[in-house]
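Subject: Sanity check before I submit

Could someone independently write out the structure tokens for this chain? I want to compare against mine line by line before I put it in a report. The sequence has 263 residues.
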Amino acid sequence: MHNKHLKICHPELVSGTPALAGQYKILEFNSIDSTNTYCLKHFDNLKDKTAVSALEQTAGRGRFTRTWVSGNYENIYLSFVLKPHNLKYIENLTQYLSVITAKVIETYGIEAEIKYPNDVLVNGKKICGILCESSLKKNVIQGVVLGIGINLNMPQEILDSIDRPATSLNIETEHSINRQEFLNALVTEFYKDYNSTIEHGFCAFKEDYLKRIKFLGKTIWIQQRDGAPKEEYTALKIDDKGNLIVKTYNNEQKTVLSGDLIL
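---
Independent answer below. Compare away.
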């Protein structure tokens, strides 16, 4: 899995010129509040396709303002700075990254599943979270910061403290994971079909996405925010835009554009 052409900065280097990784740049920190927060704050000064990684996050964030449990456990905390010329399909980038993450996890002999829209699960437990945030200037989108956290070497006692079922790749494989090898593979795989996704959206990776979801045809629940009532539906299909189409209790079809899917 190691790519000799992809080099990572020494983790002690918390400032200075990012390391060149082929046509990409990766800046790595020992500890940071949040890689997404850093990228948004410095968005104008970071070049397109720069990746920012950290060994530890002190204020990791997830969807719906949730926190992401972070620590110096040899996990992945990574954000991509993306400034594509075509912004039409940027909403599909989180789904694209979920597919890429699943593919890399599967190289370890582990089956990965995607929970709509972009959570990656192993044995029904969350192993990965993805957060995409737009960078705005005078209310005009300049690009996005695409962040991901992946549990690679999380202690079981930390996983047990999380309020939702969670797992880590070291638990699933029963051995520790080389963080740099995984990071190299993830960044390399992400950019392989990135341009196609920017040009064609969900259709560029739809087949890979669909074969990793297992909830179509089943009863699901959607929760719009933490603490809100759950709404029951039947999951019908994923359309060509990457949206979930569901059936209500009175057999009406509805497109789910937001919310947390509960299986």
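---
OP: Matches mine. For the report I'm noting this point. The domain at 219-262 is CATH 2.30.30.100 (SH3 type barrels.).
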